[in-house]
């Protein structure tokens, strides 16, 4: 299954243990050669006794993964999904360690390299991710996931022409729907937003895998937001969450829509029990501030500690969120501007344009918004939110 971004499907501890045990079982069955696998007759049949908790299962899976690519790949995928669903970046390290035998100085697996690039992308190490993806394509030039991941990274960097070229490579190697979503998403950022929105709206969802349907709906929701069609955006985001309830990317975008329209209590309901991820905790704190909610102090303290810990580690994964936290929760536009400027050095998405411009104007330093304004103008970016910020300024 090809998708724009790794799904954030939620794994409870029991679910993670189950999936790790499944990885072990797959490895065990594959190791018996031509022997026929044992298929239990009912769910009560005991296949193996393991100690409680995930640690022993994980250790067994990692031992298999050290020499077995067919075990390493699904285990790395599980760790990446766990990192994105919980916000615990240690799982990215686990994934990287599992993949290390096949991604070293002389890499041997294109699939392992693509997953390694996904880890780097999750850490916002975009340039290294592109380098690793180039290695993957050298090993297997017809790998559509390598091209699609490249398109995604290039889009985040604002290198739209190169991203479109990668989408064209997807078009000759993957299913037409993935290629069309890839291309139209770029058209929607480079001056053709209404027609790109119409084109994706025509893509039928019947028979589409859940993750691909969620990608389609999230793109349509974001496009509708930029077009000022908030009612349509809400419908698309709702559809996307029904297809993929654990997708924090859609949930964050939906929460932003509710917050922008003054629906803070609905945003809190949408984000209930989702406070382990900094991007979602940020939206919770913004909603709490709007409502003068008693939980704001705790949310603010947790966010401040998380951003401080990232700075101590020399990371900048959530700089955009930090800028919004400083601007919309702490009411510190000068500090928000500094964070937004650091963020702009790394990524150039619509929300990056927006937060830099808002922080610059709020801090009374309008010239600091010039790079973002120039980028939006040069690419023909259409976004009613950006127009509104500029209109307030003028």
Structure description:
The longest helix has 18 residues, at 13-30. This protein is 69% helix and 0% strand. With 394 residues, it is mostly helical. Residues 1-37 and 47-51 have low confidence and may be disordered. The protein has 21 helices and no strands.
Helix content: 55-70%
Strand content: under 5%
Uncertain spans, ≥5 residues at pLDDT below 50? 1-37, 47-51
Give me the Rg, rounded: 22 Å
**What's the end-to-end separation, in Å?**
47 Å
Bulk shape: globular
Estimate the mean pLDDT confidence. 86
SSE series = HHHHHHHHHHHHHHHHHHHHH
Largest sheet, strands/sense/barrel: none
Structural class: mainly alpha
**How many beta-strand runs?**
0
Number of distinct helices: 21
């Amino acid at each position: 299954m090809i998708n724009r971004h790794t799904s954030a499907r939620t794994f409870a501890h029991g679910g993670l243990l189950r999936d790790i045990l499944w990885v072990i079982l797959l490895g065990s069955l594959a190791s018996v050669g031509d022997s026929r696998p044992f298929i239990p007759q009912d769910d009560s049949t005991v296949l193996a006794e393991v100690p409680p908790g995930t640690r022993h299962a994980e250790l067994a899976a990692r031992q298999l993964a050290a020499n077995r690519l067919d075990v390493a790949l699904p285990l790395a995928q599980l760790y990446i999904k766990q990192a994105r669903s919980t916000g615990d970046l240690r799982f990215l390290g686990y994934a990287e360690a599992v993949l290390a035998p096949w991604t070293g100085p002389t890499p041997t697996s294109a699939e392992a390299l693509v997953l390694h690039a996904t880890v780097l992308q999750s850490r916002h190490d975009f340039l290294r991710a592109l380098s690793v993806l180039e290695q993957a394509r050298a090993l297997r030039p017809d790998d559509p996931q390598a091209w699609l991941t490249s398109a995604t990274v290039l889009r985040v960097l604002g290198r739209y022409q190169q991203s479109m070229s990668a989408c064209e490579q997807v078009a000759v190697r993957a299913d037409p729907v993935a290629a069309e979503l890839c291309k139209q998403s770029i058209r929607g950022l480079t001056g053709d937003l209404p027609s790109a929105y119409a084109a994706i709206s025509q893509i039928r969802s019947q028979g589409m895998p859940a993750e691909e349907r969620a990608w389609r709906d999230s793109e349509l929701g974001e496009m509708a937001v930029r077009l000022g069609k908030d009612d349509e955006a809400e419908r698309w985001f709702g559809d996307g969450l029904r297809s993929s309830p654990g997708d924090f990317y859609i949930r964050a975008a939906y929460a932003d829509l509710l917050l922008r329209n003054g629906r803070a209590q609905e945003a809190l309901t949408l984000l209930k029990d989702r406070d382990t991820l900094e991007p979602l905790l940020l939206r919770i704190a913004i909603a709490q501030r709007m409502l003068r909610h008693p939980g704001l102090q705790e949310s603010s303290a947790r966010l401040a500690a998380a951003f401080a810990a990232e700075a101590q580690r020399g990371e900048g994964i959530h700089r955009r969120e930090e800028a919004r936290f400083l601007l919309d929760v702490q009411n510190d536009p000068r500090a928000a501007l500094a964070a937004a400027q650091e963020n702009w050095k790394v990524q150039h998405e619509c929300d990056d344009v927006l937060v830099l411009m808002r922080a610059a104007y709020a801090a009374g330093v309008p010239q600091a918004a010039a790079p973002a304004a120039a980028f939006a103008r040069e690419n023909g970016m259409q976004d009613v939110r950006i127009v509104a910020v500029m209109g307030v300024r003028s």
